## 1
Amino acid sequence: MKKKKLCLLVIVCSLLLSGCWDANEPERFVYANGIGIDYKDGKIVVYIQIINLGSLAKAESGAGGSTSKADVGRAEGNTFEEAIFNLYHTSDRRIYLGHLSFVIFSEEAIKVGGIKHIADFLDRFRETRYRMYFFATKDSIKDIMLISPIENISLAFSKLSDPHDNYHQSSFIPPTDLRELIIALDEPPHQAQLPFLQISKRWTAQDGPKKELLIEKAAIISDNKLISILSKEIMNGARLTNKEFVRDSVYLSKRRNADISVLIYDKKVKIKPIIDKDGKVRFDIKLKLNANIQMIKKQETVNKLKKEIGQAIRAEVYRTYHFTRKQKIDIFNLSETLYRDDNKTWKKVQKNGVIPLEEDTIKSLSVNVQLKNSGKMELSPIFRDGQ
């Protein structure tokens, strides 16, 4: 009797199970890896890059074959939503946005205020994640999306999809993901910094020159508008204040760069607000970092090199500060530092989240350089003159 009741209970429970009748099978999707947003003739233009995740699995397992191919779709509309739905209509299968890795804005799209609207859409959309990186460009978005990485590696490991690996080797312009973009535009000084993409031909394949992506500029966005595009020479002084800085080279001077090459790493920075008696806000900046000598042509002393490296870094920082200050760009986030350290004073002096930046706002800048292993444990060249 008990066995009959148990069997009856199992049968009834089985009838209540929903099963997998409404499940979406992964192989039936097409997967969007990146989105591009442009603005032309009063219309929003949307590009979507589709990649084959099956080829990615083959690459990781060691199977042969090309893994860098992608398809790029294009559609336009009066709004971003209209454009993306127009693109949906051309797809054979459902386009899945849960694996989005990057978003590229054209200069025109930024100028018409597209950043916040797109960020809001992507943040609300249930499929997307915060781990997608934002870029700006004035080159063709379609051409950028069709560029294959060097060595024919998967597009999932490209500079757009996975920018941190490249940044850790040369920490110049830090990647900005969705979470960081929202924070930057919402908190003082309400300014975001996006890596600026350029199409380059510095690499060559067996069949000729190869297109590759170059990041040597940064786009500064504030109040949902494009404020400026800063060159490498201007951005050099800002890299050491980036929290994620790992390592990069430092240039001493045009004359000295032919004689010596210096790598800086293991950086620590401390920015402290100082309130003068008249209520003026100024800042003390302290930088502490390690340096390695990568190449040297003649005998040098430790103290002389430390002094030269410190002077070069100080010159970079001041050059960056004075140039960006004139454009009303708070590149060192001094406003945010005061906001967090002394909110009462910040409320008194701020205007739209930004405090006044003047010629002497940086009260002091100290650079502490520690020279580490130069490769031969000495600051002398391997080859002597005349030998």
Note: Residues 24 and 167 are 37 Å apart (CA to CA).
## 2
Amino acid sequence: MLILPTFARLSVALSLLASTTVACARLPAPVAAAEVGMSAGRLGAVGDWMQSQVESKRVPGAVMLIVRNGQVAYFEAVGQQDPVHGTPMSKDSISRIYSMTKPMTSVVAMMLVEEGKLQLDAPLSRFLLAFATMKVGVERKDPATGAKTLESVGTLRPITVHDLLRHTSGITYGVFGDSAVERLYRAAQIGLHGDFTNAELADRVAALPLQNQPGTAWEYGFSTDVLGRVLEVVEGQTLGTIMRRRLFAPLGMKDTGFGLP
């Protein structure tokens, strides 16, 4: 089952919740590791290492599935899905998959590209007008005093759909560094601190300066969240509806969604 927490329900890039309920029902029976050219000892070491992470309380639990050439070589669950009540982790426990939602969003985007509804080189502002006048935050340091200031400069070119797909939009998260722009992101509390729609999230991002000039650097950030909003504008539906119609239903992912059933 795939479930999204509140923020992920509203902002696709951060998190789906998933269990392997459907997958388990369709998986072939496990085979000996040697049958698929793998080492049973090395696979066992994977489980031992994950168990050590549980015992050191780095993670409460985990499910590990390794498939090669369509055959299951390793499938184990360790730890607990609910440490408070001691519920053991099972192979079909519900889990958030967080940024693995990004490839799902990207797949849908490429479906729209194939259908001619979306162009990779299209400027983001064609779909979201708030991004028409984006600025880039450039830190300046006074050589005499050492004081730093943040200067806003215009973009050399617009953000494109392609930039959103490859994280070269200049949009950041604000959690992996301490630049002046990242501090502005943190102050705006865009991350997991709010319950707002994709449209509201995109507007909040558009109100902040970019970390880099579009197309010049890879920066892990809210690019896929904004892309999710683009999909909503193009399709005229919520992202959850789009995902169900285009991915989850056709692929038989009936236990997948952005909220608990």
Note: DSSP finds nine helices and eight strands in the chain.
## 3
Amino acid sequence: MENSLFIIGIVIFLALAFDFINGFHDTANAIATSISTRALKPRTAIIMAAFMNFFGAILFTGVAKTIGGSIADPATLDNGLEVVIATLLAAIIWNLLTWWLGIPSSSSHALIGALAGAVFIGAGSDHVKWSGFIDIVKALLLSPLIAFAIGYVVMTVLKWIFKNKSPHSVNKGFRFMQIITAALQSFTHGTNDAQKAMGIITFALVTSGNLDSLEVPLWVKIAAATSMALGTSIGGWKIIKTMGTKIFKIEPINGFAADFTGASVIFGATMLHLPVSTTHAITSAILGVGSAKRFSEVKWSLAGRIVITWFITIPISALLAMLIFKILF
């Protein structure tokens, strides 16, 4: 019993560490454009994002239930805690590596891939809910395409509406609007990304017999939301630089269009209880907006590197989780 409680303690620590890292890894995406256009000062943007992430995380649990039960049934796993430990270690390692390199990769992809890999190697392929896994992967792959398309349309419409206006006055107005959309995007990030650690902790509590269902306890909500908010307060300057300045020269009207698009796609997924990559949604929104502004201005070589990272994250995380499971257990 004591040994089981100790392992659960390790799982909770790792899950909250994942959320903390997610906070400075992925939230950087949500505030990058508002910082690059000087709509918000960096410190102000980070503090605002931390609060909005917290509130978003507290208010929703649908994505947590999807994470907790769509890839595997925790009640049927004899070694579920070991599976979760391997999952979290793999996802944390990949997140830290891509953060260090300044590449906006997906924490969602890392966690989903790692969980599938850990269940596969730890319990066998029969315990992986392949239909649920495929549904999640579909959402992860479709969301950036949707974000790109919406971003392109939104920016095209804004260009047409304000084509006869002074660029200076337009950008002055949209610099204020960016504050609102940056806050909204941080809120939606909390509604989706913080749920993933909640789902993993709930998964561990069910598989250990400490919970009977995938209903997320209040203390898990508060712990995950607080961890993400604290991580957000650290900031992710390398990723902010990549997202805010290196893809194309972002002006306030572009930042507004990208933030509005990203927030819409993420919150839509949250309402459908689907875990999507906030990184993918926001990056694709920026690419769509940049394409509508001027296709030739987008640095497609950098965009290509980001897209490659998107596609390799799930298989690498799965293999990493398998390796960690074999080494530790």
Note: Residues 2-328 form one domain.
